[in-house]
């Protein structure tokens, strides 16, 4: 199935399946994240592998939910972020140990995610988020276990809190010196490649960054370079 | 067309070339660039980050590739690059390692930065936090609680540190360095406490290497070495102050106040210049030394009232043979406390100016001063150091790889004096020894014949009183006429004070006791780490040169006529290589040292360190090293004459120069006065061993085979002293297990040519024609015509020690506990080979230490309790021998922090509930200390 068709069919689910209202219960997700993610956003992979079963159940639960037009925009946003992050964890739990997600054969293209019966890949989910929903803040909520990726939130995304959560995620990402470096002494910045990849989605990159940046703002004069994406597995060092 | 194609090819070539690099920027957790991070590609060092944290290196190999970042005190970081694009512009954030006891960085063990767990030999560390949590009045005293450290305190502020056996009051076998420079006092050839050391507010950390370290640090690091490192004025700036006010409590001296005030000021004037000033002033009352046990090891088989040489009574060393008493009689002495004011006063200061020509180099100019008054137990005598001044000027230049330092250290003994000699010469001012003994003999004969009913002890006491005062209070019988002199000066009397002043200001050894010394040393050290040039292993080369100039005007050394100088120099090299994923570390080093006149020595060290466990949290180490130690200035050039004892250093030129012309007379050689020149060579070649003299005196009977007793006398040539050597094997294990940190070590040391001092009896004459009933060749001894000499030589028999230590510590959220046990044992050796040799082991077989505490138990309250235990052991030194009792000492402190004014108040007690204890025979017993301490901005 090519991407276009897949997206179309997913969108059909999204817009046509008028159905019964589903209550989304995040409590299992919440418990799971609390147990496997540290305050700093580090994932305990060993523990994750041990608790594969409960992760599978969570992923299964997510796949049974059917996004549809009755869902509010916040509900939709929260759902897709959670689908991405938990399926990413699922993938990791099947292959760990490794030093980088890139050691898995085409990790983003394997269609292992079940969304209401349809098999899709991580790339597909990311595309829905990027192309269809149109909230650039969501890029900073998706974790792919690499050092350069946004960290995994300890809280599952939920409709009621999603705005605060996304604001926090962006602020956290921009001010994390391991993702973006803003020199204190010179007018130079090294930005995450995410900003380069999604450049077209930011109306004005400088003002987007300045909105969240703590400390000295960037200007037109700021010499901006983009770092290389570091695919090394993000892991707490001892 | 052709041109176009070429141009295109060039472009393609350029773009292909431009792919062949990996570059990036390395930052810390807070985003500041990290300078000097090593970047390894496939385990080969390819680059280091510059001062903007950036690095760049060519790379033409395949992908994926592993890039590893290594920076001391940071977690090692590896990244996998899957394609060239991944390495275009890396943003590398490194996180600081969680510092545990074993991951802290040390320098001393291998002259290079490494983690404690990686060191190839045992190392003990002491941090600024340990200073603050301490129970002692100052950080130096607190070192007594460090594993393996044995403290030998001679007074309130002068302590000597030792590890692994053979402790001395003036420890010439243990080297102490402050920021790399020895703070050895020239005249003593040893450090005295923290004089010239580091101010307590300026201490950054301390590293102690127990056991021989000569292979890296030269001859004096024989028993161990301590490094005190100070804080950089570029990093720790501002003003800090401490004030301690407390009381010492001792039976003999009573309760006395002490005060200790100190400050540190560091000013960073610019990014490249900084200034640092440290000052401290201590004043208090010393522990009074009042040990009246006999210090003599020679039993003359006579009642103590006639002959008794007490440890802390001086003047009683003078012994004459009394015909009336039938044996040796000692003169009446003075107590230690009669001969000094018991005050301790010490000022220490240093000022340094630091320049950083660039990011990784520093020039330091420093001047240190120490000035004070205190009583002090030397190896040979008790001394009052009065207005004693020590100065050190230091210039150093350090870069990432180079260390160069040159420094000048001098002392001025000020108004210092020798207490033993003071007592002897005050006595002489009253009555010279001839007068005193004649009065003693004459009166005793008269009392004996006049009072046949009185018992002998009463008669001896009366004779002593008459010899002292030329009268006997309350005795109505006949008294002989005194042959001269005046009455014994009672302490505190005007006569005593006048005599005291006269004696302590005279440098004439036969009438005075003043120590005049202006000795100095000049030392230069250089070390270069070839890490940027030699890649396959870490290579370091270095050298040191030290000139000693002895200038005591004959009051300490045999330098009355001219200054003595000699040089010591050494070179060393060290190679270290890490293998097997950095788990195996091999080090080898060798050092050559030479002292002017003596033969040079090579000392190698080989060591292995292997890391176990996934995170390298366990570690095994093994090392073999030889160490050696040159004789000290005192061993070589001593020339102090005490009248009853004369010290003669063993350097060949000293033996050639030493001369003591003695005039004596004896009826055995006729009526005329005789003159003998006791030269150094004569003393070393013709003296009787003290053991044989004792056997001779004990068994000689003119009426019963006197020749048999005479045959017991032995003349044994004393070999001149040379370097002593140790071969040391050590095994150790360090581990972090379940939040506990363990360190276990065991060692075996074999010492050959151990340097020791012994006493020999040099007769003024040896005449084989004298009849056996008059003593034959021993006639000079029977007629008291001899002098005891202290000579310096090497043991003929090797001695061995073994030991093991065990330490454990754990940090909880609020509490910390640690404990250590050390076993140190001198093995049996062949005592028959060299019967004069008695090892001065001076170390308890069992020592244990335990501490529990909390920094912030609740609302800024903290506490620490420390307990130390030692088993009983013998203390042997040229000055005095004795038994040091088994003891347990408890120290405790509670502290309260006031963060708003950056201050901490601490109330502390040392030796709480305990009995007084002694660490050095001849020094005062240590009572209780209580104090309040206020520290601002530590």
What does this structure look like?
The complex is a heterodimer of chains A (238) and B (938). Chain A is mostly helical. Chain A has a domain of 160 residues. Helices cover 44% and strands 7% of the residues of chain A. In chain A, the strands form two sheets. Chain A has a three-stranded mixed beta sheet. In chain A, strands 1-2 form a two-stranded antiparallel ribbon. In chain A, a hairpin with a 5-residue loop joins strand 3 and strand 4. In chain A, helix 4 packs antiparallel against helix 5 and helix 5 runs antiparallel to helix 6. The longest helix of chain A has 23 residues. The radius of gyration of chain A is 18 Å and the shape is globular. The N and C termini of chain A lie far apart (44 Å). With 938 residues, chain B is mainly β. Among the domains of chain B are: 92 residues, Carboxypeptidase-like, regulatory domain (Immunoglobulin-like), CATH 2.60.40.1120; 111 residues, no CATH class; 103 residues, no CATH class. In chain B, a hairpin with a 4-residue loop joins strand 49 and strand 50. In chain B, helix 5 crosses helix 8. Chains A and B meet through strand 3 of A and strand 1, strand 6 and strand 7 of B.
